[in-house]
Structures are given as structure tokens and as C-alpha cells.
Amino acid sequence: MRTPQTRPHHRHGVTRRALLHAGLATGVTLSTWPMHRSPGLWAAEAGQPKRGGVLRVRGRDMPHFDPHLTFHPGTHTTLSFVYSKLVRYRVGAGVTPGSFLIEPDLAERWEAPDDMTYVFHLRHGVKWQNKPPVNGRELVAEDVKFTFDRFLAAPANPLRYMLEPVERVEVVDPYTVKFVLKEPYVWLLDMLATSKAMWIIAREVVEHFGDLKKPESAIGTGPFLLERYEPNVKTVFKRNPEYFLKDLPYVDGVEWLVLNDSSTGLAMYRTGQLDCGPETGWNVRQHDLESLKQSHPQFIYQDFLFPNAQRLFMRTDHPPFNDARVRRAISLALDRQALVEAVWVRGEPTGAVPRGLQEWSLSIDQLGAGAKYYQYDPQEARRLLAEAGFPKGFTTLLHTSGGAGTDAVDAAQLVQRYLKDVGIQAELKLQEFAAFIATTRQGKFEGLAMSAYPPGWEPDSMLYGSYAPGSVLNISHVNDPTLTAMLKAQRRTQDLEARKQLIFDIQRYEAEQEYYVYLYCPMSTGSHQPYVKNYAPNALEEYGMAAAVLWLER
Q1: How many whole angstroms from its chain centre is CA 181?
Q2: How far apart are CA 449 and CA 399, in angstroms?
Q3: Over the range 369-384, which residues count as b (16 or more CB within 10 Å of their CB) and which as e?
Q4: Do both 241 and 388 map to the same domain?
Q5: Are strands 448-452 and 394-400 parallel, antiparallel or unpaired?
Q6: Domain check: are 465 and 374 in the same one?
Q7: Same domain for 38 and 58?
Q8: 102, β-bridge pairs
Q9: Radius of gyration over alpha carbons of the chain, in Å?
Q10: 487 by DSSP, 3-state: which?
Q11: Alpha-carbon gap, residue 200 to 192, rounded angstroms
Q12: CATH no. for residue 406?
């Protein structure tokens, strides 16, 4: 049986338009950043797969295990080991960091007969993991329908906006499922490929447990079985012997370790207690990079711009942030390049679409009339504040969390200082990460807040999620009919170049309005031990699949 990596989509009935959607529209040529080694070279050096061993990597803890009731990254990255999706992003040593290629997962092929319909043909013989209540039965189309019916119906699902254009999901036959749309939605495949809430689940499991919050409910069709969960310590996975891709995974198991202290993680990596980089995404902090390269030159290192952005968000539905002059003043008060150098060491100032998504992102000098608000100009900031009625500035709150790393707190403190220089007294409010996700990151805050936006592998999830009225990720409470119309238009535009121009226009419009004050796109350096084979760092959150296709030669 050929693996999905060798199965070209166009040989399975996909229309030319759908092929373009599944390839070009996902940004297959995004990354041109310099690399220490090329992924092609890594693939050539990988050699023959070797079975066995336990992969030890940094993971995350989570509030619970139900993918439809949280957008906490800990939940979704942990579940990537256990579940499968209809389609997924490709991983492995042959994938260039920053490229996002869609390939089959549970669906072995698909077609789009018209702009309102997608038909997915499922693999035959896929088995649910052999645990009660599913007990290894075959996955069928009814499972897919149940999954997305629940996804769309769950009132507390914060990610429902991702499939907002889906009208219904129909079972055509036991191995065929149809998505019927309310309106054209060119990003459907991209949404289904993301490692957020798109996992296919079983009805019996939900009915047995009542929901999917308990670790015992994590029963999927993925490459690993959840063996043990120790809250805030680690999650242990073992190889699924009935996984539908023959021979995978190569490792016997994975220890997904919760490491809240960067220095502890770095020490573990140096001493071989971790197989990949100690930071989130299996990266190395830029502050630690040079010393690590000097002490451990044998480690593999890979630079790439991460497809997310650090940004300030604010209650634009409340004064003073409902005044564009105040928002522009905040942007002018910040020295973005100094922030990069002081906190992240390397990175690039960015607008609404992070620079890591090169194909879709405008550089600062391409943002038109709004580009001037990205310059560091505290004098102009004070003038705008006075014009808006705040000649002496004002007092507000600045919320953030160190849950994703200490760099975030360092950056917030520097932002606090810049704001003070123009008269804005921002009291720093540090929150525990789970509380930050449950409140501030859902728009339940007052004043200002700062954090990274979750990574995106196409521009729609970032733009529509951030600005569409009603979206739980519209943290700044934006309600701009002009912008909403632009957002909807790009979702319906099949022509790639025309869609790009719409997305460029959205970025220029946002640069003038400053509903969010975008700061920078950080440079990341992925790293792994030399005995880890068939792995290349990437911004993807396909941790489970990445662990399944690599092997260890130690």
C-alpha cells in the first residue's frame, strides 16, 4: 500500500480547481528562509527506518480533552497523537519549514464538483483504537457526520467560526461523506487540515462519557494510544498496533513532558533527556541559541519565521480604544525593532498577516497609508493622544501570561515602558495561562492585553477569526462593516490572484485602523538530536504525525 506522501491528488478525480485549492491556496511556496541544512539533505541522510525507542519531547498540559469545548493549544496538540482528520498537513524531513502541503488522512481522495460541495472518500478498513466502547470497530462515514454535527452544534465551541460556511454534512454511503456549504468557502480543505478541533470522534465515546473531557475518552484512529495522563507532569502514549498506515509509527511510544521552566528544559536537552528542542514547538530560545550551538554543535538546527504574531489587543468597543487616534498613538509609541532585539533577538515587524506566511503577507513598507503608524514616533503619539482628548495620557490595564514562555512577560514589560513614555500608565496584570485563555483570550477583559495569536497556515483563520463580528477570537471586539465585507469576499474568491489582492487590501485597511497593534513575527530555531531521523522542524502543530514518521538511531 502506498502512503499518502506518494499519492498524487489529481489521479483520484480531483478537479483542476480543487487541485489548485489543495496545493497553491495552501501556500506551498511560502518559505525561502536560509537553512543550516536543506530538508532534502535531511531526508537523504535519514536512511532506512528503524523501529523502537521512546521519543521524549516537551508537551503541554491542558484544561481537558474535549476538542469542541476549548481552543487551548494544550488540548489540541495533545490530541494530535490520538486522533486523525479527513486531511492533514504533511510532515517529515522532506518538508521545507514554512510550507503547508495538504495530503490525505482518513479521506484517501476528494473532489469539489461545484463551489458549494466537497465530497470525501474514506479509506476502507480504518479501525478505531481497541478500547471500549468502540472496541476496534471500523470507522465509517457516520462517524464523520457525527463529528461535524457536534462541532457545529456545540454552543460552547470557540472554534465553530472555522466552519461557519458549512450548511450540513451528509452521508452518501458508508465510505463517502459530503459537505454542503451555505456559500463558497475556498479555505475548507485548509480548515479541515488544521490541528484544531478537526479530529474525527466516535458517537459511542461521547455517549459513554457524556463529553470528551476525561483522558479516558481520548480514543481515536491516530498513530498512538493514550496510556497515562499525569496532570501538569506528562502524558504517555504508546504505539497503536492497528494504525491504518502500515509500519507507522516507528517509535514504540512518546513521553509528552510538561516543562514550565525554560532553564530546566534546556538542561534536559543538553544532557540528552529530551530528543528535540526544549521550547514549545520543539524549538530553542533565541537567547540560548549561540551558547547551545557552541556547546552542542552536533545538534541539528533550523531557522524559520513562525507564522504568528505578537500583538496588542484592546476593547475597541469601549473608550478610549474606540477612537482610532488612540489606537494609532499606541502603535506609534512602540519601537518594534527594539522589542525584537531585546526580547526575541531575531524576528521581523509584521502587520495583520504574519511575515512567516510570506505568500500572503505584506511587509511594513507595503502597507500603504497605514505604514506610518508602524514607525517609532513618540512625539506624534503624544500629539494624537492630545487630539483625542488625552493631553496627559490615561490609565489602563495590560493583561498577559507567561504560560507560553518568559519572553512574553519580558516583552509586555517593555511595552509597558514605551506606553508610559507617551503618558499611558498601563498596570501589568499577569494571569495563569489557563485563566488567560479562558478569559482574556476570549475577549473577557478591560483595557489592553498582549499575547501571540495562535499560529495559522493560511490567512483566513487569522483575519476572519480576528475581525468577524461574533467570532470568539475577535478579541478586540471589532465591528466594522467595511472590513467584514472584505473578509467575506476573500472567502468566496476562487481566483488565487484576486484573493491575494483582497487579502492585501485587508492588511492595508487594518494598518490604518489599528484594531490590533501588531508587533513582530518571531524567528524560531527548531532543533533535534542527531539520532532523530526523518524529522524537520516546522510551524505546524502536527506533533502526533511528526512523532509517527520519525525514528530514533540511538
Answers
A1: 24
A2: 4
A3: ebbbbbebbbebbbbb
A4: no
A5: parallel
A6: yes
A7: yes
A8: 89
A9: 23
A10: helix
A11: 10
A12: 3.10.105.10
Q: How far apart are CA 457 and CA 306, in angstroms?
A: 10
- CATH number of the domain where residue 170 is located: 3.40.190.10
Q: Do 400 and 352 fall within a single domain?
A: yes
d(CA 53, CA 462): 38
CB 87 within 8 A of CB 545: no
Q: d(Cα 73, Cα 405) in Å, to the nearest integer?
A: 14
Q: Is the dihedral of CA 372, 376, 382, 385 positive or negative?
A: positive
Can you give the pLDDT at residue 213? 97
The dihedral formed by the CA atoms of 500, 113, 86 and 11, expressed in degrees to the nearest 10: -90
Contacting residues for 417 by C-beta, under 8 A, at least 6 apart: none
Q: Is 15 in contact with 111 (CB distance < 8 Å)?
A: yes
User: What is the span of the domain harbouring residue 515?
Assistant: 310-523
pLDDT of residue 139: 98
CA distance 355 to 367: 13
Closest CA to 15 of 460, 459, 494, 360: 494
Please give the pLDDT value at position 554.
85
Cβ 81 vs Cβ 226: under 8 Å? yes
Give 202's Cβ-side CA count (13 Å radius): 27
State how far the Cα of 491 lies from the Cα of 165, in Å rounded to an integer: 9
Q: Are 345 and 286 in contact (CB under 8 A)?
A: yes
243's grid cell:
494504525
Please give the pLDDT value at position 155.
87
| Contacts (Cβ under 8 Å, ≥6 apart) of 469 | 478, 479, 484
Residue 226 CB-density burial (10 A; 0-12 exposed, 13-18 middle, 19+ buried): buried
CA distance 6 to 511: 42
123 located within any domain: yes
Residues 14 and 141 grouped into a single domain: yes
In a domain, 299, yes or no: no
Q: How far is CA 383 from the centre of its chain?
A: 38
506 and 540 part of one domain: no
Handedness of CA 307, 311, 313, 316 (dihedral sign): negative
**How many domains does the chain contain in total?**
2
CB environment 61-79: b (16+ within 10 A), e (fewer)? bbbbbbbbbbbbbbbbbbb
What are the b/e assignments for 405-434, b being 16+ CB within 10 Å?
Answer: bebbbbbbebbbebbeebbbebeebebebb
What sign does the CA torsion over 18, 125, 48, 37 have?
positive
Low-confidence ranges of the chain (pLDDT < 70): 1-46, 404-405
Say how far apart CA 170 and CA 105 lie, in whole Å. Answer: 19
pTM score of the predicted model: 0.85
pLDDT per residue as tens digits for the range 517-539: 999 998 999 999 999 999 999 88
Residue located via cell numbers 509500519: 247
Alpha-carbon dihedral sign for residues 246, 273, 46, 539 = positive
